[in-house]
Amino acid sequence: MSSSSAPSDATGARHLDVLVVGAGISGISAGHALQTRCPTQSYAILEAREAIGGTWDLFRYPGLRSDSDLYTFGFSFRPWSGDRSIADGPAILRYLHETAAEFGIDRRIRYRHRVVSAAWHAADARWRVEVQVGDDPAPVRFTCRFLYVCAGYYDYDEGYRPDWPGTERFAGPIIHPQAWPEDLDYAGKRVVVIGSGATAVTLVPEMARSAAHVTMLQRSPTYVLTMPAEDPIANWLRRRLPARLAHGLARWKNVFLTLAFYQFARRKPDWMARQIIGLARRQLGPDYDVATHFTPAYKPWDQRLCLVPDGDLFQSIRSGQASVVTDRIETFTPRGLQLASGRHLDADIVVAATGLKLRMMGGLTLTVDGRPVEAPATFLYRGMMLSDVPNLAVAIGYTNASWTLKCELTARFVCRLINRMAARGDEWCVPRRGEATGEAPLIDFSSGYIQRAHDLLPKQGASKPWKLYQNYLLDLATLRFGSLEDGALEFGRRPAAERRAA
Predict the structure, then answer these.
(1) DSSP 8-state secondary structure symbol assigned to residue 479
(2) pLDDT digits over 244-274, tens only?
């Protein structure tokens, strides 16, 4: 769809009922929900990059894969048909392309449309959205009744890299996985991967296949849990049942298992820690120093767990192709890294798998009737709407389960709001916090990327509808079936005279 295909308002701005920002998983989910549940509403998806897929198109590092099962990470409306429950990045990207094409969502996407700012004007009950199209510095204006931001919370421009001393002396490349060079040849090279999170445990076994040796250098250990790459129950169901039924059963099985695992880990953290560490010890052997390298100082789910399909990380360590060093960097040297313990790690290539930067709503600036909206000063209503900001929703997935599960619930709830307003003649809805008390960080993780971003994210409250429960079953009940008349959500319209004048 071209920019010129949307009707224009009196100011010449292109107008649609709903503007979706971002064409990743949550944007595709939003598009499907809008065209099936709000078929009379016009919509478009504005994507800053040149391709669909969000992070799955941005990240291209070796071994890229999901850290959730595809039966819940995939869409409910298009069953995942691959054999592997933990799939690699290219397979997931193909799935997203095929899904968008099958439902015609790809025809609603406008690429190289970066949303710069959005201003709500109560006088005409519309958002005025400034968009940079391609390299043209002159902004293009859109207007919409409802703005739906599906840009995630990662900064796509750059990842996080600490300011280590001596990096300028290192003779080899220092690479962040978010900007992986296509022509990097690491065959036969000594590689040091700095980090212990999901990216590091993915990179190490994959690079170890052809590198001379790969060392995972970590400051402190992470909980690493082996998971089968293929789901035998799901594959058994697929062989015997229609695809949609088999997918639904596998999806619900995994929803319950994931939720039960998380709840048990939070209630019995010491027991769960012993089980996870014990599994690592059994895979690495009795002589391996699991206490140093795979025994975290925090409780399970204080940070996100790292899943390794079929124990590939442990296999690469057992084979001698990879190793783990738990230490701190004192300085880079021309041929590697000098550690605080006095040890030197020789390296030809260093990979800084040191995390991501967060950026709320893709970096766009918001104003409401001329008043700037600062996200950290707001509270998140039902995990998706900013307090005192009309007709705006933000798609934020789960941290303890598949991102897609929450994003689909959010999309359905947005459609409920839009249909409710259309049916009753309302022009806006806005969450008001009123006398609600209590506040907490939006994401209760001790992970570095979350701690660094506390001043960027909205807050959550102490009770519903302002508290995030990170619980799919609770959200399913409240977002799909709960009343919209909850005392916090305010609906309204302009006076009749204003509407006639407009």
Answers:
(1) I
(2) 899 999 999 999 999 999 999 999 999 999 9
SS3 366: strand
> Is 88 within 8 Å of 64 (Cβ atoms)?
yes
Give whole-number Cα distances, 215 to 163, 169, 278, in Å: 20, 20, 23
Minimal CA–CA distance to 29: which of 317, 372, 370, 406?
Answer: 406
DSSP 8-state assignment for residue 82: -
How far is Cα 290 from Cα 410, in angstroms, rounded to an integer?
Answer: 41
CA 207 and chain centroid, separation: 25
Cβ atoms of 207 and 215 within 8 Å: the answer is: no
pLDDT value of position 501: 57
Residues 481-502: tens digit of each pLDDT = 989 999 899 999 987 656 555 5
Nearest alpha carbon to residue 47 among 132, 155, 137, 140: 132
Which string of DSSP letters, residue by residue, matches 283-305? Answer: HH-TTS-HHHHS--SS-TTSSPP
Amino acid at 264: F
CA 90 to chain CA mean position, Å: 17
Q: How many CA within 13 A on the CB side of residue 325? A: 23
**Secondary element (H or E) of residue 373:** strand 371-373
Residues 201, 65: Cα–Cα separation, whole Å: 11
* Closest C-alpha among 392, 390, 391, 358 to residue 376: 358
Phi-psi region of 78 (alpha: psi -120 to 50; beta: other; left: phi over 0): beta
Beta partners for 440?
Answer: 460
Instruction: Report helix, strand or coil for 196.
Output: coil
Which phi and psi angles does 230 have, rounded to 5°?
-110, 140
Q: Kindly report whether the global pTM for this prediction surpasses the value 0.90.
A: yes
Tokens of 242: 């229609």
Residue 328 CB neighbours (<10 A):
11
Residue 237 burial by Cβ neighbours in a 10 Å radius (0-12, 13-18, 19+): buried
Q: What are the φ and ψ backbone dihedral angles of 184, each rounded to 5 degrees?
A: -70, 125
Share of the chain above pLDDT 70, in %: 94
CA distance 457 to 441: 8
Q: Which two tokens stand for residue 403?
A: 């991102």
> For 436-473, b where at least 16 C-beta lie within 10 A, e where not — what string?
beeeeebbebebbbbeebeebbbbbbeebbbbbebbbe
Tokens of 41: 């509403």
Q: Which residue has the tokens 């006095």?
A: 342
Closest CA relative to residue 142, chosen from 249, 71, 46: 46
Q: Please spell the DSSP secondary structure of 38-88, one letter per residue.
A: -TTS-EEEEESSSSSSTHHHH---TT-B-SS-HHHHS-TTS----SBSS-B
Give which of 178, 263, 177, 264 is closest to 469, Cα–Cα: 263
Peptide bond into 205 cis (omega under 30): no
